[in-house]
Amino acid sequence: MQTLKEVTCGSTAIVQKLNGEGALKRRIMDMGITKGTSIFVRKVAPLGDPIEITVRGYELSIRKSEAENIIVTQV
Questions:
Q1: Cα–Cα dist 24/46, whole Å
Q2: Cα(38)–Cα(72) distance, integer angstroms
Q3: Sign of the CA dihedral 8, 13, 18, 24?
Q4: Is the Cα torsion angle 9, 10, 13, 19 positive or negative in sign?
Q5: Spans of all domains in the chain
Q6: 49: burial class by Cβ within 10 Å (0-12, 13-18, 19+)?
Q7: By Cβ atoms counted within 10 A, which residue in 2, 7, 32, 45 is the most buried?
Q8: In this predicted model, what pLDDT tens digit does every residue of 20-75 receive, in sequence order?
Q9: Does domain 2-63 have CATH number 2.30.30.90?
């Protein structure tokens, strides 16, 4: 298993687990990212922050620090 931060651009990953507590976890879940969700990594900024993803048909930007708390399996 790996974190969303480690997934390469143009790849799809399935969420296995969310780490973190409180506001951080709530922010991730408010974006529609929950266990079993498919995430497509569209673009990663040159320095790795932000990461642009597609979740449930929505295009979102996520911070590198948030991506480190999302455990995924790459498809």
A1: 24
A2: 9
A3: positive
A4: positive
A5: 2-63
A6: middle
A7: 7
A8: 888 988 999 998 999 999 999 999 888 778 999 999 999 999 999 899 999 999 98
A9: yes
